[in-house]
Write a structure and sequence with these properties.
The chain has 501 residues and is α/β, with parallel strands linked by helices. It is 37% helix and 22% strand. The chain has a 7-stranded mixed beta sheet, with helices on both faces. The chain has a 6-stranded mixed beta sheet with strand order 9-8-7-10-11-21, sandwiched between helices. Its EC number is 1.2.1.27.
């Protein structure tokens, strides 16, 4: 007798709820095609219940002392550490990345949870005493109300943890919509959050596709929306949420470049390039997808190809795996189509990753490391965000020429320079037009003391996720000007001017 496939639950008002929907999607192990769960597309009524629960919970949660909120997140980070192996195994089964990379996914989110436990200092206001005769002015940062987050498939632990811990720590309540392709680890994190002490209604989780996204954008009780995902969907979310009067921050597509100067540390640079280009099968918004070799560094191309050839392709749970499968058959077909288009448009295929044989996982969505040289700006492999293990290699005669290539690209998520020259690094960090810059660091995602700062076509909204910027995003600054009188200070007469004297 076949084992029944489990169903993913909704989280509404502190309870795990079986959806009443008639619309379900399969959660598929991308290494085997096994259906490991079924995820509901929440009904309009279920979405309304989640919003109502969040709105009701806000009335008490916003009054909860900062110290009490912080202690919940201290407990939450301990629970995540305790369940790290379980969470990583679940993430690998549904998303495909290697166990080591899955742990990294969780750990980078855990850092934000730890930062949320410091909310007491992050949410402090300012005070200026005696700005006029007996007048003080001060600011407080108050929560907005119900906030929402829409997260992608590629980081099903880290990106949800970018969102709801900081929003909730600031005194808001939250509705999370994870990717329907891999929601199981997100739900386990939500369960641990309840175990840590987050009250009913403060965190709610709904599942679904475009209908649920639109419901989040439209709902009048939701005050702010945070999004990470594709440019197409992110642009839609930003426009629709903004028109509905909400705050919105949308982290979107990318085409991240690295420049390699001839004086760079050769072995270390090649290792970094291969890891950043092909790790997570290239399914990172900060993946290194373009390398610009400057001058004599063009001679490094054969060694870069050899590095790529050493990486082991297998199911993420297999020992020694470096690269797991892509998330779906559709994603695999798209990546392979773009590789074929690159050949047709004249790029030189230095390493072809199509059709790798992975014993025991013949049905997996595998594409191996792929390297193109001779890539130009007009080619589809350069213009499109491939979101697969495909590296485009370009050449430039100088650092100035290489920077011009980067600045001409419409996206501005991240970039990196490999060099041992402080002067070159100084020029690069000042002149390059990208939000996150690495110097000998291939994926320069900031730690939570700072904020994720993608720019240009990679971002809509002024404030980025986590760090100081997201505290501003999830709170309203209120400025208070106060004067207290005693009998001796009372003056006679009516003052009709704007002066505070």
């Amino acid at each position: 007798m076949a084992t029944a496939v489990p169903t993913v639950k909704l989280l509404i008002n502190g309870a795990l709820v079986e959806s009443r929907t008639e619309h379900w999607s399969d959660v598929v192990n991308p290494a085997t095609q096994e259906v490991i769960a079924r995820v509901p597309h929440a009904t309009p009524d279920e979405m309304a219940q989640a919003a109502a629960a969040a709105k009701a919970a806000f009335q008490t949660w916003r009054k909860t002392p900062i110290g009490a909120r912080a202690r919940i997140f201290l407990k939450y980070q301990a629970l995540i550490r305790e369940h790290m192996a379980e969470l990583a195994a679940l993430l690998t089964a549904e998303q495909g990345k290697t166990l080591a990379d899955a742990e990294g996914d969780i750990f980078r989110g855990l850092e934000v949870v730890e930062h949320a436990a410091n909310i007491g200092q992050l949410q402090m206001g300012e005070l200026a005493s005696n700005v006029a005769g007996g007048v003080d002015t001060y600011t407080v940062h108050q929560p907005l109300g119900v906030c929402a987050g829409i997260t992608p498939f590629n980081f099903p632990a880290m990106i949800p943890l970018w969102m709801f811990p900081m929003a909730i720590a600031c005194g808001n309540t939250f509705i999370l919509k994870p990717s329907e392709q891999d929601p199981m680890v997100t739900m386990r994190l939500a369960e641990l959050a309840l175990q840590a002490g987050i009250p009913p209604g403060v965190l709610n989780v709904v599942h679904g596709g475009a209908d649920v996204v639109n419901a989040i954008c439209d709902h009048p009780d939701i005050k702010a929306v945070s999004f990470v995902g594709s440019t197409t969907v992110g642009t839609h979310v930003y426009q629709r949420a903004s028109l509905a009067g909400k705050r919105a921050q949308c982290m979107m597509g990318a085409k991240n470049h690295a420049i390699v100067l001839p004086d760079a540390h050769r072995e270390q640079t090649l290792n970094n390039l291969a890891g950043a280009a092909f790790g997570a099968a290239g399914q990172r918004c900060m993946a290194l997808s373009v390398v610009i070799l400057v001058g004599e560094a063009q001679q490094w191309l054969p060694e870069l190809v050899k590095k790529a050839q050493t990486l082991k392709i297998s199911a993420g749970a297999e020992p020694g795996a470096d690269i797991g499968p892509l998330i779906s058959r559709k994603a695999k077909a798209r990546v392979q189509q773009l590789i074929g288009q690159g050949i047709e448009e004249g790029a030189k295929l230095e390493l072809d990753g199509r059709g790798p044989v992975v014993p025991g996982y013949e049905n997996g969505n595998f594409v191996g490391p792929t390297v193109f040289s001779g890539v130009t700006r007009e080619m589809a492999v350069y213009k499109e965000e491939i979101f697969g293990p495909v590296l485009c290699v370009m050449h430039a005669a100088s650092l100035k020429e290489a920077i011009a290539i980067i600045n001409a690209n419409p996206n501005g998520n991240g970039t990196a320079l490999f060099t041992q020259s402080g002067a070159a690094a100084r020029t690069f960090e000042e002149d390059v037009d990208a939000g996150q810059v690495g110097i000998n660091v291939p994926i320069p995602v900031p730690v939570p003391l700072f904020s994720f700062t993608g720019s240009r076509g990679s971002k809509l909204g002024d404030l980025g996720p986590y760090g100081k910027q997201v505290v501003a995003f999830y709170t309203q600054t209120k400025t208070i000007t106060a004067r207290w009188f005693d009998d001796a200070a009372v003056t006679a007469g009516v003052n009709t001017t704007i002066s505070l004297k």
